[in-house]
């Protein structure tokens, strides 16, 4: 299992629209091979910042299978217009504890 962590900074004032777009984007993501789970949480101190956690079966499922597919193009079309900055993405291996 691979955990993708993305920090998303959204244009202030567009949070509601972003959350609605993310609901549709989640349906696109769920079609990807190796997709396992999705969680989105909004920042408290910085409400225009979101933490996105996605579990993948393998790193390749995200980096090649999804990122190089038409699903990714559709995903970015839905949520990309709301980004204030490029997402900060990191991957983590299986839980240690």
Account of the protein in words:
With 97 residues, this protein is an alpha+beta fold. The protein has one domain: Alpha-Beta Plaits. The chain has helices spanning 15-29, 59-66, 70-79, and strands at residues 2-9, 35-42, 49-56, 88-92. Strands 2-3-1-4 form a 4-stranded antiparallel sheet. Helix 1 packs antiparallel against helix 3 (70-79). The chain is globular and about 35 Å long. The chain starts with a strand and ends in a 5-residue tail after the last strand. The mean pLDDT is 97.
Q: Summary?
A:
This protein is α+β, with helices and mostly antiparallel strands and 97 residues long.
Q: In terms of topology, how is this protein built?
A:
Blueprint (H helix, E strand, L loop, with lengths): L1 E8 L5 H15 L5 E8 L6 E8 L2 H8 L3 H10 L8 E5 L5
Antiparallel strand pairs: 1-3, 1-4, 2-3
Helix pairs in contact: 1-3
Based on CA atoms alone, the radius of gyration comes out at: 13 Å
Strand order of the largest sheet: 2-3-1-4
> Alpha-carbon distance between the termini?
14 Å
Give the integer mean of the pLDDT values. 97
Instruction: Write the H/E string, N to C.
Output: EHEEHHE
Domain tally:
1
Structure annotation, total helices: 3
Helix content: 25-40%
Q: Which class do the helix and strand fractions yield?
A: alpha+beta
* Reported CATH architecture: 2-Layer Sandwich
Morphology call: globular
CATH class group: Alpha Beta
Quaternary structure state of the chains depicted: single chain
| CATH fold name | Alpha-Beta Plaits
Question: What proportion of the residues form beta strands (DSSP E)?
Answer: 25-35%
> Using DSSP, what is the number of strands?
4
Q: What's the story with the biggest beta sheet?
A: 4 strands, antiparallel
């Amino acid at each position: 299992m691979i955990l993708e962590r993305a920090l998303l900074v959204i244009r202030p004032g567009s949070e509601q629209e972003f959350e609605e777009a993310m609901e549709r984007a989640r349906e696109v993501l769920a079609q990807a091979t190796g997709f396992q789970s999705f969680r989105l949480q909004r920042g408290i101190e910085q409400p225009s910042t979101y933490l996105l956690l996605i579990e993948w079966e393998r790193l390749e499922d995200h980096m090649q299978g999804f990122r190089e597919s038409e699903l990714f193009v559709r995903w970015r079309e839905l949520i990309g217009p709301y980004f204030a900055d490029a997402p900060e993405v990191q991957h983590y291996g299986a839980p240690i504890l």
